Records
---
Amino acid sequence: MEEEKKGIAEDIKEVYAGAKAVGFDVKIMRKVISLRKMDQADRQEQEALLDVYMHAIEGGMRPEPAGTGVGEANEGAGDEE
């Protein structure tokens, strides 16, 4: 079993090396795979915590979600002449 495990680890390493060779970011690929292994509730909890920490690190400044209308009212203003 240990030999099989070692062989599989080598196969995985080769896949990541091939992906890196064609321009993929292996660190991000590993993160995506770890997220896909989680169940939906755990993933949502982790995303919520990440959001809270990012908010704290940025000094309480959060970007406005798309579609909130902030900054949209003036779009196109002054374009008509």
---
Amino acid sequence: MKQLFSNLLFKVFISIVLGILFGLYLPESVNRIFATFNSFFGQFLNFAIPLIILGLIMPAISDLGKGAGRLLLITAAIAYGSTIFSGFMSYFTSSTIFPSLLASHVNDAAEIGESGEDLLPYFSITIPAVIDVMSALVLAFVIGLGLSFQENSTLQKVVKDFEAIIMQVIENVIIPLLPLFILGIFANMAFSGQVYSILSVFLNIIGVIFAMHIFLILLQYIITGALVKKNPLRLLATMMPAYFTALGTQSSAATIPVTLEQAEKNGVSPKIAGFVIPLCATIHLSGSIMKITACAMALMILGGVPFDFGMFAGFIFMLGVAMVAAPGVPGGAIMAAIAILQSMLGFSEEMVGLMIALYIAMDSFGTACNVTGDGAIALVVDKITKKS
């Protein structure tokens, strides 16, 4: 029971239910308390996002550079290619299905980005960010790449300490408060009469993304099976313990021991598996980018926000890099993606909150997709290195 109540997905589910009940049955004066919290938490998120970018991307890029070598480059290229492929597959599938699937809900939900006006906070506090998002991204890449060429750098130690601080903020402040933030969003939507439309939309979106993630896993193993000349279904069946472990842990990092063991059972050499699996747990996020791309498009369609291929292409390429910094905690990838959603797709605070709720509702399946794909990448890298 204690484990259930500590599960982030369970907390988000309870928050959505309570938010709907509070919005429907509690007076405006009480619901404005949640609007006040959301106003403050939204300001804190805007302040923290550039710091999260700096604290997570700088050490991630510098650590990758330190191990620069042929094996690293091969693994990173395949992992990034898989992630980007998943993002574009999600874009084309979503842009084909969602406009007609969500057409009946567009008018009902057209106010997504503005629904916060219905419940006003009792007071608000402005917390300006110390640096804007794009400047933080560029600075993180510059420092990270620079540190990758330094030996025994004092700045590297500072960057690692800063990373530890940011991880503490995410794990001890942001993640624990997210359910309350989501409660406030759904209380607001229930109070303004939008919640039933949004919930029906959620179910449709989740169904489409679940089907896409199953298709992606099958496709990965069909391609891998053809390359390594092994039965793809047998390879995939061997990886199922890692898949189901990831459903429970919601963390690629926490699933590494099982993923490693199953990859070796598929015939990957221990040396290659020991390098590729931990690395891919950090840099291969095909399931995560699929969910984020599809959810972002769905919310933009609902909110009447225009988009085109060029906008999403840039978003996908940038997201594939930014999520390298995703920490090994449930919901980590969406925290790394918030900055890109705001700066490149123009997401409002309300849309970010809905995005977080949607993402966490499917976090287990995205993580399972990531780690199962890690096993496929290990097989391919093992095949390539044996040839050379």
---
Amino acid sequence: MKSLPARLSEEEIKTLYKLREIIVKFNSDELKVFSYVWDNISVGEILFERDLNQIHGVNKPILAAASLREKGVIERGEGCYNLARWLRPLRKKIGSFQDLRLLLDKLP
């Protein structure tokens, strides 16, 4: 995992705090959907539904996605779901959702 202080700007650290405030309010399905989109950045609609339903056990991934869109953490493209633009630079620096969780746990 990448370290927190040296690699991230003050603005990125603020974004991490904002994201943590949002994530702690996710239900189980929202967390699975967000982690999937975080790891994939952009995923086609059919693959999104199939993977989340069959692999991750989310019964109605579209409903969870709609909720996450309202919360501003994912976006809907043409036939796809994408990580929200404001999170993409952070995603590129941090890497996987597992690394994000470890980093969020380190925040004071």
---
Amino acid sequence: MGVIMPTILDMLYREYCRARLAEMRKQLLISARRSEALEAHDHLAHLDDDERADAPRNANDSTTN
């Protein structure tokens, strides 16, 4: 009986660590996907701003010529 208790505790601790690591990996993947999505959205927002900025310039250039 003296050997069973440490073995059970060791197994429980290893299972806890495995589950915790899996949870942390999952959270890192989710946060990585979010940051990639935010970067892509931010990049698209900058492109939209540039396109909007170019549109009035083109309109002004055609009206002044």
